[in-house]
Batch of 2 targets.
Target 1
Amino acid sequence: MKVLLKVSKQDFEKTKEKLLKDEEVSRASIKFKCKNFCYILVEGNSAQCEKAKELVKEFEHEMEEGEEEKIMKEFEEEEEKAIEGFGGILG
């Protein structure tokens, strides 16, 4: 399961700390991207994703139409580039 969260830059450090200090959520894959806002992609089981949403609900901002798809695509492209680069090292 995946969940994408949007927080302001000023709340990013507090949010990041909450997620990484939580015993359950910290076991999930957590990726960060900051632009005008900061985006946090949590990939894990449903309990981890739900807990992540619960932990940051006071800081979370609503996404505009199409924003989630755009940011998810950017995360996927970065991951693909990293895999390609890793393959070049081993290949």
Target 2
Amino acid sequence: MKRAFILALAVLALGGCIVGPKYTRPAVVTPTAYKEPGQEWKLAAPSDAIAKGTWWEIYGDTNLNALEIQAFQANQGLKGAFARLLQSRDVAHDAIVAEIVAALLAFLGAAVSAGKAGP
């Protein structure tokens, strides 16, 4: 019984190694050039001088301006991100203050103990 099980397991394991018919690579027609002949690479021309804050104002549309302001004020994700930013600033400020206080207390403690060390 045990020998038959091992033999069956070996047959199944070796049977998984059989891949199938011999693979032949399909023929692919490769073009000699791209479809857009004559076009040269265009160098990037960044527009860093353009204001990026209220970009929609370049259209001069008062309705668009009002809609953008309304969307900005109603954006809960942006409000949440701003609240998290303020919270992280408060935590960082508290950590800095705590570090300064700890250093000051350590300094004062050392100064007091040095003052008591006299004869």
